[in-house]
Amino acid sequence: MSELTVKNVSKSYDGRKIIKNISLTLHQGELVSILGVSGGGKTTLFNVISGLTKPDEGQVFLDGEEITGKPGRISYMLQKDLLLPYRTIEDNVALPLMIRGMKKKEARVKAAPYFAEFGLEGTQKQYPRQLSGGMRQRAALMRTYMFSQNVALLDEPFSALDTITKGSMHTWYLDIMEKIRLSTLFITHDIDEAILLSDRICLLTGKPGQITKEIVIREPRPRRKDFNLTEEFLDYKKEILSALA
Fold first, then answer.
1. Which of 110, 123, 164, 180 is deepest in the core (most CB within 10 A)?
2. 227 DSSP 8-state letter
3. What is the tens place of the pLDDT at every residue in 225-236?
């Protein structure tokens, strides 16, 4: 069981406070979205949670163990897939294992069973340029999972995809989360995406950025196909827009 806890985190750059007194908890199997305007401190928060940046104040815990400023404990996927063009998909997704000291052959063997799980069977010997945008994102997500099989930080992973591909990736990701019991903290600027994917939405607003509201989405995941046409969906959207105004 994995639980991520952020307690009273603040961070400044060049004397300017970017985020202030942020606390949140991500429970096993949850998808929690951080929603807010550009420049509100979402990426700074993720850099602190992932251990890439030390906070000025506050702590980060994973399963009760403090991991503040300790990179390598939580996986972090940025907007672009960042697959290495000169490596096969097999070696791209196994890269985190090799970085940790595993030999290439052993890393490939360990990663092999997950290709079917992630819908990537048959792509092992292909290169990123041979895959569609959606398939490259699947490979990037699989690589993220191989880095840390408990908690994933995703920074707008579907923003570059067209609307139809994005919708199918949403369905796929919720399914894969359920299968592998992955917990996800998710950055998005897309209100519809947040409502469709999240168990909870944390609104990060102001300068410095603070979590000013948490909205629980009570519709079970995965959401029914017409959920975005319902009165309930519109009520959630109105609540978010009002809070961000």
1. 123
2. G
3. 889 899 999 999
